[in-house]
Amino acid sequence: MVDKSRMPPEARFWGEQEMYEYAIGAIVEESLPSELNQAILVIDGEPGKEKFVVRLRTWASRLARSQNRDRIFKAIVVKESRREEGLQFADMAAGVIAEIAEHGESPYESYVMSKIRLLLDLPK
Predict the structure, then answer these.
(1) Residues 6+ apart with CB under 8 A from 58
(2) Are the CB atoms for 81 and 44 separated by under 8 Å?
């Protein structure tokens, strides 16, 4: 979740690329290299975003070099949420978190938390 009130004033003129760079930069700033370098960043989108992903990978590689990291993410990929149940759930979980942050509760909180508990209890 991005707190838009904490974004720089010029953010209202940003396009998709700049918004992703800002959000990813904020995540990277708060993490250790070992926390992200095996992660796969999945972007919800339709086919045809290849140029966007290439630009984002290039930006992430430059960011990694500037911070003396081997890499930021293991991979950056685009998937369609309507075809990916994991993305659908992640979108739902993000929506619940946003509702809780804004209103203090969500009618879907117990459902999402029960599914997260299941995931955390899976054998490794």
Answers:
(1) none
(2) yes
